[in-house]
Amino acid sequence: MFLARLTKRVGIAATTLFGVGVIVFVLLRVAPGDPIAMMIAPGATPADIAALRAHYGLDESIPVQFALWLKGILAGDFGTSISIRRDVLDLLAERLPATLELATAALLVAILIGGGVAIVGTMLRRTRGESVVDAANGLLLAIPDFVWALALVLVLGVFYPVLPLSGRVNPQSADDFATRFYLVESIVTLRFDKFLEVASHLVMPTLALALPLAAVITRVLKQALAETMVQDYVLLARLKGMSELRLILQEALRNAVGPTLALTGVQFTFLIGGTVIVERIFSYPGVGNMAIDAVINRDLPLIQGLVLAFGLMFIVINILVDLAVVALNPRLRHG
User: Fold this and answer.
1) Which positions, given as ranges, span the membrane (predicted)?
2) 98 and 159 fall within a common domain
């Protein structure tokens, strides 16, 4: 049953990814603008322009271009960036770790904040404190991540400059890392000075992304806990003298976390895509920041590679979340 479900999901994922590739490829070709026009030097001859178009395969028909691109993808060749003049796969491998670390850090912070507030709100249910929690959570829901980013820049970067405003590390420290996963590497190698440096650059973009997601987690988990707290087994445990906090943590939380986990997984995929604006504000060198430059420069190979990378991450995360929900729910696991 598990293998059949996994095989079906992988098949659907491959079909979805192919469809995304087709749509993006065609839309980029029919959209106004010529990427070659942004590359040619003043005084270039028509022969120079034609040679450059031929070099990037833009002189063929759209079906032929797509066939050549798909053939390259299957061989592990995502093409060469028009604006940066580097292999697209190398650029993705260079920038993707930064975005993954940022999104993962934001997810963990959102889970801690959202889960904590949901538990507090559940303990304060039917009191004035619950109204305060709900009002504060509604405020968090109403403010998008880029507004939080700008507010954090003003408060912690301008008025009280206690945190760095841009980058992942100080420029002179970039060569001190053997991998692109700076945060993970600093922890594994026990270089806590580097960890503090990387973490200080992560604080503001992480909070900007985490606060709206924390509000979503709070709302869903608090609602799930409210429904679970009136179940018979919880009432029986209360009659046995369990404290309210112990009831929530030991009895209610494990049964309420399923819907929250499913929603958090979906929101995490949106979180990765949402890093685009936040990375731009903080000049954070991730794939989101690179995506904006690729669109501005009409860098077709890079845009196509970025879309495929985002699509693949979304699909993999959703599959993992579905499997985790099934693993936590015995009725789904044996159904």
Assistant:
1) 12-31, 102-124, 136-160, 202-221, 256-282, 302-328
2) yes
Cα–Cα distance measured from residue 260 to residue 225, given in angstroms and rounded to the nearest whole number = 10
**C-alpha to C-alpha distance for 220 and 223, rounded to whole angstroms:** 5
CB atoms within 10 A of CB 286: 25
In a domain, 102, yes or no: yes
CATH number, domain with residue 288 = 1.10.3720.10
Same domain, 43 and 110: no
Residue 194, domain extent: 94-333
Eight-class DSSP state of 165: -
**pTM metric for this prediction:** 0.83
Q: pLDDT-derived band of residue 276, with 50, 70 and 90 as boundaries?
A: confident
pLDDT digits (tens, 9 = 90+) for 190-219: 898 899 999 999 999 999 999 999 998 998
Residue 80 has phi, psi (to 5 degrees) of: -115, 135
User: How many independent structural domains does the chain possess?
Assistant: 2
Is 83 among the domain residues? no
Joined together, the tokens standing for residue 294 give 């690729």
Residue 69 and residue 98 share a domain = no
Q: Is residue 44 a part of any domain in this protein?
A: yes
pLDDT in tens, 25-52: 888 777 776 677 666 766 677 787 777 7
CA atoms within 13 A on the CB side of 280: 14
- Average confidence (pLDDT) over 266-290: 83
DSSP-derived 3-state class of residue 285: coil
Phi/psi at 87 (5° precision): -60, 130
